[in-house]
Design a protein that fits this description.
The protein is an alpha/beta fold. It contains 12 helices and 8 strands. The strands form 3 sheets. A 4-stranded mixed sheet has the order 4-3-2-5, sandwiched between helices. A two-stranded parallel sheet has the order 1-6. A two-stranded parallel sheet has the order 7-8. A hairpin with a 4-residue loop joins strand 3 and strand 4. Helix 1 crosses helix 3, helix 1 crosses helix 12 and helix 10 packs across helix 11.
């Protein structure tokens, strides 16, 4: 088992057993490591201690974050402004595929892909000349299935492996220092007009905050379309960078996630902890704009 697999397994164990408040020895035993070695490994890849991670997994966290983020999403979107996001020294801009590009079925389009280790397990990333077109956790589908899906979406494209081309995408989310000062990270995705609008709205939700499906629908001026918003979020092809993990149910329950319930809670907790620790380390708050093109 790789270090990434051990940390992913430990996070899943914490999610599943949060109510029992497992100790360091118990969690370390689950991944067959000594408590000392496990503590160091977890801190290295998750950026926080197992104890701090567990502390955030509370039943009321979702409701508290929901209350906190209500005005952030609705107000910023109504004003046409980006949320006050701290997305690691870079910002994300979304470019939709044009009807002409869609009709061409990817003719003359070159797509590079790579598989990268993350604190949440292996991630499949694919990029075009214009931006990121796929980012998916691989616990659900095998590489062959992800490549087949990509080829189905762009039948006439040229798809090849290029770790160098895709590495920056993972670094942008997990290691802010590596992309500081670089050009914006662009997304190049295909979807209906409504899906694109929903994905753009998600970019206004700051890291560590959440919004409900109903709030996203209201921000789009379609308050009765919460179910359609949920369908659009489920179709999101770019995990993390289009932050569908920040949308929960009105009750405070997590709701669905394309890559699994446990993965969603892991990402939310990790992001919340990272945001809190960044605030403690740097009392001067710096905001980075998020383009909604």
């Amino acid at each position: 088992m790789s270090d990434y697999d051990r940390i992913a397994s430990a996070m899943s164990y914490l999610v599943d057993h949060a109510s029992a408040q497992p100790g360091l020895e118990e969690i370390a035993a689950h991944v067959h490591l000594s408590p000392y070695h496990f503590q160091r490994l977890f801190c290295r890849w998750a950026g926080t201690t197992p104890k701090r991670f567990l502390q955030v997994l509370t039943l009321e966290r979702g409701k508290a974050l929901l209350d906190k983020s209500r005005s952030i999403l609705e107000t910023s979107h109504a004003l046409g402004l980006s949320g006050s996001s701290r997305l690691h020294d870079h910002f994300v801009q979304l470019e939709a595929v044009t009807p002409g590009e869609y009709k061409s079925r990817g003719r003359q389009l070159k797509i590079d892909y790579g598989v990268h280790s993350t604190p949440f397990g292996p991630m499949f990333v694919a990029v075009t000349q214009r931006g990121v077109c796929r980012a998916e956790f691989m616990g659900v589908n095998r590489l062959e299935e992800l490549l087949d899906d990509l080829q189905d979406a762009w039948p006439l494209s040229s798809i090849g492996q290029s770790i160098g081309s895709t590495r920056r995408v993972v670094e942008a989310f997990f290691d802010s220092g590596s992309v500081s000062g670089n050009a914006p990270l662009s997304l190049h995705v295909a979807g209906t007009n409504f899906q694109i609008a929903v994905w753009r709205a998600l970019l206004t939700i700051p890291p560590g905050a959440v919004a409900s499906y109903t709030q996203v629908a209201a921000a789009l001026g379609a308050p009765r379309s919460a179910r359609a918003v949920g369908n659009a979020i489920a179709a999101n092809p770019v995990a993390l960078l289009i932050p569908c993990h920040r949308v929960i149910q009105q009750s405070g329950a997590l709701g669905g996630y394309r890559w699994g319930h446990s993965k969603k809670l892991m990402v939310q907790t990790w992001e919340r902890m990272r945001d809190c620790e960044a605030t403690l380390q740097d009392s001067s708050s710096v905001s980075y704009p998020v383009s909604t093109v």
